[in-house]
Amino acid sequence: MAKDEIFPLVNEQGEVVGSATRRECHSGSMLLHPVVHLHVRDNQGRLYLQKRSMTKDIQPGKWDTAVGGHIDMGEGVHEALLREAREELGLTAFTPTPLFSYVHESDVERELVNAFTAVVEESQITIDPVEIDEGRFWTLAEIDANIGKGVFTPNFESEYRRLRALWT
Prior knowledge:
The structure is a single chain. The chain is of the alpha+beta class. 23% of the residues lie in helices and 36% in strands. The chain has four helices and nine strands, in the order ββαββββαβββαα. The strands form two sheets. Strands 3, 4, 5, 6, 7, 8 and 9 form a seven-stranded mixed β-sheet that branches. The longest helix has 14 residues, at 154-167. The N and C termini lie far apart (37 Å).
């Protein structure tokens, strides 16, 4: 994860309008850059979450969306989703379903989130220990019981509320 990695800058419709480094995007500049999220579910309806590596520059050690990552300059949304799923969870055979896109803003960055979901078997998942400290399937009741307790990233909690509205 190079701090001089180049990200595309986009408008709220996802159209590329420029570029900036990772450092610039994460420095409080609020430059809008695109990311992908994949919410992985199993056949029992549980949601797979990853525990972010302690080496991450944002929200280290917190539980988060199964797959999340930046779209590289010149890369499409679908291409980035497949790359991130392969890198983080070893997923290569899955069918992503688009959920929604929205702008997420934190104290240090502003992202255009492109969220997807997919149903996979636990045996398909092989986490990359460089990217993720650990991962596991959570029941929705377990997640609900831990919302607001500092267990999850604020971004996940916000997005989870959108998911619950879709799934109930």
